[in-house]
Specification:
2 copies of one chain form a homodimer. By secondary structure, chain A is of the alpha/beta class. Chain A has 13 helices and 12 strands. Chain A is globular and about 60 Å long. The first copy, chain A, starts with a strand and ends with a helix.
């Protein structure tokens, strides 16, 4: 039995969507049990709508909820909030394997660092979503927002963390790692990226293919795109914006004339498959890499299916052995001799 | 009569595509004359395929061609190359209004700075493409690659340059200017962007709406997205990659089954309109802002229609009075008192 925590109050549609997502997840995985943190009464009210295996669902009552607008460093001091209680439970209980939250990204990152703690040797945790690519697979973009300011050692560690995730989460052997820059040539980028290029080239345990450009995240040959959190975040949201525009234009055009409406009837399935392939949330949120246990940050606007996917993702990654895989990779690299100034 | 230079040898499909593009442009604008720089024999061979008004087309023979792989600072020393000759002609001849090149971006930027020169008071030129947005208009992204390293004063000037372009090129009164960051809150970003936010808030002559995220370039409310060249380039190419993936998936899905093939027949027009709306090259390339004259950098893979659009764009922007508009805006801002350290 694998036990996962869910911050039932996190996200725009909580607790309705989180609770329904948990019920779906329990139905799909008989070897899963869940601990929900949040306002017990509200959670029970939502739960009463569904049939589920009550023996595998536990509620820990927390009166407080962290808001999207709360300042993360302040928010994590609220010890009665669903997120902070979840992090303490995760830290203290050996039988709890992971945490899923659709709440404030900033609070999840700060809480992860301050309460749960980082894997020994890791400087900073990183946010790592999986982006659909033109090969029909996923490219891991790491970091995409946890660290607006980075140093070369952090970027090198993001490479290592995301490579371990690619192996464990997607079964990719020797994942190809690219450094996101403003051109493919070695000299491209600012000093941070030029320096990082040098270290990544020398680093053991990863298959570094050099600089990549923004378009290579979705259309290139790499499995991992290493980015500072500032430009990684911009890349992610730029792609999301483009996807949103395309779907909007598509919707408008496909109902613009009688002819296109008729065409739509014939193409419904193809369009549905297409939407599926372009779904940024297919794998249920972004991993918070570098922490002592598996933490999945689900999208703030998560629907029940997204929460269920995030829970399944957390379970799969725990089963795959993400944290031991990272620790093993870390053994192979001596960062202090690789990178003089950290 | 308006006279525009075209670097006939620049781009993957030169000189065939550039020459055909010039012929199209001449046909569309009777008040336009062109000067083509490049290998005269090759250009004449291409020209012989078309009918055109020879009185409005001049060729300046240049034996040398700058390659995409040449190092820009070295390339611009090649005085017999089509790009360098074009820049010297542009600088020396008052009756020549602008330049279009689909050649090396780096060489175009360095040549623009070193040969043509910047507008008085402007620190660095910036590359500024127009990106289709969900309002059916265009968002100007400035800078998207000319400057991998930026200072706050440069970002503030990019705001001013692109705002002038939005007014002159797209007829937008008081264009809304956003600063591309990793979140909308004022405190978001690295120190460069936090500092820039402060100065942009105080700056005269622009309507600053605060930080924007990557998705706001295509789906937000701003007309100008100010970016450092590093993350601006990543944003642009990430959107391009997403667009490419979508069109690829669409193509595959729409011919996957008999039903979707039938649907396609009904939807051809809608799909064509859709592609048109998502066309990054609709306005024919990116402007190199901040130089003494109008310079348009057309995409390296420009087709004849793209070259023609770039030429038309250069002419329209000259007619609109871009450089005087920038100079007027510059008069209103005292950068040295606004930004203490530059």
């Amino acid at each position: 039995m694998i036990k996962i925590l869910v911050d039932a109050m996190g996200g725009d549609n909580a607790p309705a969507a989180t609770v329904e997502g948990c019920v779906i997840a329990l139905g799909k995985d008989k070897d899963l049990s869940l601990v929900l943190t949040g306002r017990k009464q509200e959670i029970e009210k939502e739960l009463s709508k569904y049939k589920y295996d009550a023996a595998r669902l536990e509620i820990v009552d927390c009166p407080d909820v962290i808001d999207m607008n709360d300042i993360p460093t302040e928010a994590v001091k609220r010890r009665q909030s669903s997120l902070v209680v979840a992090y303490h439970l995760l830290k203290q209980n050996e039988d709890i394997c992971g945490l899923v939250t659709a709440g404030s990204t900033g609070a999840a990152i700060v809480g992860g660092q301050l309460i749960l703690g980082r894997i020994r040797g890791i400087k900073r945790p990183a946010l790592c979503p999986a982006i659909p690519n033109s090969r029909g697979g996923m490219t891991l973009l790491c970091d995409c927002g946890a660290n607006a300011e980075c140093k070369p050692v952090m970027l090198c560690q993001f490479a290592l963390l995301a490579a371990a995730y690619a192996e464990v989460g997607f079964g990719i052997k020797n994942p190809k790692v690219g450094l996101l820059s403003n051109g493919t040539e070695e000299h491209k980028g600012d000093p941070l990226h030029q320096e990082t290029y040098k270290y990544l080239s020398q680093m053991q345990g990863i298959d570094f293919i050099g600089n990549i450009e923004g378009r290579d995240i979705m259309c290139g040959g790499c499995d991992v795109a290493v980015a500072d959190g500032f430009s990684g975040n911009i890349a992610l949201k730029s792609m999301e914006g483009c996807g949103k525009l395309v779907l909007g234009v598509m919707k408008k055009e496909f109902s613009a004339t009688l002819s296109s409406k008729i065409g739509y009837l014939f193409m419904r399935k193809a369009i549905k498959r297409m939407r599926g392939q372009l779904d940024f949330d297919k794998y249920g949120g972004a991993l918070l890499l570098g922490l002592k246990k598996v933490v999945v940050k689900s999208h703030g606007s998560s629907k029940p299916q997204t929460i269920a996917a995030s829970v399944a993702n957390a379970a799969a990654i725990y089963r795959g052995g993400l944290v031991p895989a990272v620790e093993k990779k870390l053994e192979g690299v001596d960062f202090s001799s690789l990178i003089p100034e950290q």
